[in-house]
Design brief:
Helix content is about 55%, strand content about 5%. The chain is α/β, with parallel strands linked by helices.
Length: about 290
């Protein structure tokens, strides 16, 4: 009798286990589809946003991989193309990040020309018929990943480890792919390449390149403002005007503008990480640098 009960319990136990595995598989399938549907919905929402926002011949896109100097370039261009009044609450009011705005379900804002449009999109996301001009800001990749690590740790994952973050970044090669696509410029888009480190060394020289490329006619006063208000000290003191926009009941993200220096990645990457980074860099980026710097 006990033997029969034990058999029944074993069957019941196995049955629960099998049912649990089936439900888990179903959940994984549903989750995959749900994720795909969500991404498709975001894509359609962005396309709708762009239709309303429209395109203009004198639009200026500020493109980059995150943490490469995007906000610095937004400030420079804002001063060169307007009266430079710093009476906005956040820079997105005068230089919107349109993909983020569509994700947040915000309405497109009306802006005078030339519009300054921030983007972290990959090159493939741009049509060959895109109107306007594009400034692609690029930065030492090790510094980019180091800065991105600190932002992720501050914003989302307080227990994030540097080694695990760099390992994943080198595996996915997102920075390399993003930079490579823009450097190749297969669609022959009108792109000016600005190196972040060059901005730190000689901002006035890079500003002259920007003025010529965008066909701007700023006054010397506007150029002086561009240099002044894009300084690290000024932007750090007024970080609430440039960083992320968390809900009011959440923590204040005060590490968006962190150090603004070059060379930190070289110090923090270990030898193995440097070796792997250099391998990808030499294969994907180095061959394109002559084209970018000509």
């Amino acid at each position: 009798m006990n033997t029969e009960k034990n058999i029944e319990k074993n069957i019941e136990y196995i049955g629960y286990g099998a049912l649990s595995n089936i439900l888990l598989k179903i959940f994984k399938v549903i989750s995959r589809f749900a994720s795909k549907f969500a991404k498709q919905a975001d894509k359609l929402r962005f396309e709708q946003y762009k239709m309303i926002f429209g395109e203009r011949d004198d639009d200026i896109y500020i493109a980059s991989y995150p943490k490469s100097g995007t906000t610095l370039m937004q400030m420079i261009l804002y001063q060169l193309t307007t009266d430079g009044k710093m009476n906005f609450k956040h820079i997105y009011e005068v230089s919107p990040w349109i993909r983020n705005a569509s994700f947040r379900k915000q309405k497109p804002i009306e802006l005078p020309s030339p519009r300054l449009i921030k983007t972290h999109d990959y090159y493939k996301d741009f049509s060959k018929n895109t109107k306007g001009r594009i400034i692609y800001v690029y930065r030492n990749g090790m510094d980019v990943l180091t800065s991105l690590y600190h932002q992720q740790k501050n914003y989302n994952h307080s227990d994030l480890k540097f080694d695990s973050f760099i390992k994943k970044s080198l595996k996915t090669k997102f920075w390399f792919k993003h930079t490579q696509g823009w450097f190749r410029n297969k669609k022959k888009l009108p792109v000016l390449y600005i190196c972040y480190e060059d901005l730190l060394k000689n901002k006035r020289r890079e500003i002259d390149k920007i003025i010529e490329f965008c066909q701007l006619t700023p006054s010397e006063e506007a150029i002086d403002r561009a240099i002044k208000y894009s300084s690290f000290d000024y932007m750090k003191r007024n970080e609430q005007m440039f960083g992320d926009q968390p809900p009011e009941d959440k923590k204040i993200f005060d590490q968006f503008i962190r150090k603004g220096k070059a060379g930190e990645g070289e110090k923090l990457f270990n030898n193995k990480q440097k070796e792997e980074f250099t391998k990808h860099y030499n294969k994907m980026i180095e061959p394109l640098l002559k084209k970018v710097n000509k």
